Every structure is written in C-alpha cells, then in structure tokens.
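Case study B.
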Amino acid sequence: MTVQELISALELKVFHLAQPERLVTGGYVGDLLSWVMGRAGQDSAWLTIMSNQNVAAVALMADVACVILTEGVQPDADLLRRAEEKEVNLLGIGADTFAAACQLGQVLSVPQ
Amino acid sequence: METIRLVYPVEGGDLIEAGEASSKMKLTLKKLGLPQDVIRRASICMYEGEINMVIHADGGQAEVEVEPEQIVIRMADTGPGIPDVEQAMQEGYSTAGSTARELGFGAGMGLPNMKRYSDEMIIDTEVGKGTTVTIKIKIPQ
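Model:
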C-alpha cells in the first residue's frame, strides 16, 4: 500500500508529505535511533515517540517509507524543517504505540 | 566508471546537527545511479560514523571513494581513540554521555551496525591519537 493509502486507512495526521506514492511494506517500532537503523527494514513505516530532528536523518539513512509519531506526539520545529529538507514523510497518530502497531499490522495484513 | 572521490568535513559538538555529511553523500550516490541497497548500506554506515565522530571525537573527516566495484568510506578523527575495540564492537556497549542518550543515541549499536551493513570494516585506533574506521561496500555487478 502507498503512504497516501496508509494515511487514509489509519486516519493519520500529516505533518509533512513529500512522497505520497511511496510503498509501505512493513513496520518497525523503536526510539533508540541506532537500533532503528540496525533493524528497521527498507520501506517500513517507523513508529516512534522521538520527535527531535535526528529522526529525519535516521529516516533518510534507513530509507523507511514514513515516520509515524505515536501517542499524539508533535514534531519539534527543527524536525519539521528537516523532514521538509530531506523529503521525509512525517505523520502522526493519537493512538498509543501498541494500538498503532496493531492497526498498521492489520492494514498491511502482516501475519500475527 | 572512474573512481570518484568525495570529502566531507564532520563538525564536532552539535549532535542535533549531525547527519549533514551522510545526507550529502546519499544524494550524490543517488545521482550516480547506484543500487538502492548499496546506497542504504553506505548511508547507514556513514551516519553511524558521523554520530560517533561527533559524540566521541569533536568531529573529523569522511572520505568516500566510489570505485567501479566498491564504495570505500574512510572516517578519520583525532579523538581519544578506542582502548578496547573488541568491547566497543559489542552490541549494547557504549561510553556515550547522557545528552547523546536523551536524543536516542548511545545504544551501543553504532560500530556493530557499521559492521552489519558493510562487507569489510577496518578499525585503526590509537589511544590519545585518534581513530580511523574504513568501511567497504561491494557494488553488485
């Protein structure tokens, strides 16, 4: 499914949308940035509560499809600026991380 | 394709600004039309190296050579050096301070990630002199 389709399916808040047609093929949950870089798959939706600007750089390097800030977390101004600069899809959801991951798993039909 | 040499200074001090060298390199590798997986692996290695240089060594320099069959990234600093490389290579071992940890770094995954995503990694380090980490990533032909 595309990032745009994921936004509709999970009613995600859009902070910055640079590549709406990018495909999402899986998910990853984590707040430790090096852990994310080591483990997140390419084209994943990355769920995190980290909202500093390094998140944009990690998303770019790890080549994830989008970042979803969970728990209603808002990006700080620098993260928003960096997401724009680096063309990172930056989204948000009010649900807690566990609920968000479950919803993501359902819409992506990831085997439970 | 001839060998292309790129040099990126890495500024020390501000961890929040780290990633500029890696972002620029990634853009250049994309323009060169390299495979997506090679670009991703090189970018992660370079970013981890950049973070390490900012946290531990007050910056340094990254040299990237794009050869026809491989990418060689050489990250050199004049920081404190690594007293025990084997220990530093263990996942979860970190000497990073609280500021780095608050930002989501310092998980002890930097060097292990660089090893994971490279085809070859060489660490040349001397306590009190500095560290040079060389990463090689093969380009599938």
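Chain A has one domain: 3-107. The remaining cases will be described in the next quarterly update.
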